[in-house]
Amino acid sequence: MSAPGTPLIHVLPRPDWLRVRFPTGPNYLELKNIMRSRSLHTVCEEAHCPNIGECWEHRTATLMILGRVCTRACRFCAITTGLPVGVDNGEPERVAQTVDDLGLRHAVITSVARDDLPDGGASIFAETIRAIRRRRPACSVEVLIPDFAGSAEALQVVMDARPDILNHNIETVRRLQRKVRAKAFYERSLEVLQRAKEMAPDVLTKSGMMLGLGETRDEISEALRDLRAVGCDIVTIGQYLRPSEFHLPIVRYVPPSEFAEIKAEGMALGFKHVESGPLVRSSYHAHEQVQRAKA
To answer: Which of 8, 116, 174, 181 is deepest in the core (most CB within 10 A)?
Structure first.
């Protein structure tokens, strides 16, 4: 119940195309036990991803390094905000062991933002990539990185470790950046993607957006053009889902037909692959994305 004098926010009913089953099943339970026993975190859990049941049943998870406390407070994100404590230098090897034990062909590694660290956590990203390469050479590695506060040196550390995909999300259109993202900038995110492509032209670059926060169709098109202008190869586009009453409200639910139109527009602009749909998230069908992009 709202406090006296607090304006009521109209809550939109969730459409049928956004309903998912409660996560259960043997693979889901096994992965959950593995993560807890090795003190590992996944963005699937921390960000309340609606696809966790489907992905974990297919033995796919996005591992989140550098702890579970983020130094930023983005208004769309469910991850805990605060002051992280230290760095776990044994984490890269535990992540690599888990990737090997799961028999992954494609591993996705992300992190919280660590503005408290001089390199933003870039060295831990790099060591995680190398550890996976040592244990499972045939596994492709995708990293979903923060912006490292715009540090080209930190980005170079990650690119020197040679990920197969460098992913950094712009999250929303230009006009809504300051409303949606804390301490992040649209132009800086584009610069991260451009620099990554310049540092390693053969590494695929990727970005993603959420829809339903009040953006217009023209603004979505502008963002797609901006991403292509910096050489971005892959883009993911999904529906924003509000994690709690304390986060930004949903302005509208985008129908599947509109997501299909945006996918067609993106492919016409020259993206190697566009994953666009209501339940799409950055690492949704990630292995298929890299296969299609390379093809």
So the answer is: 181
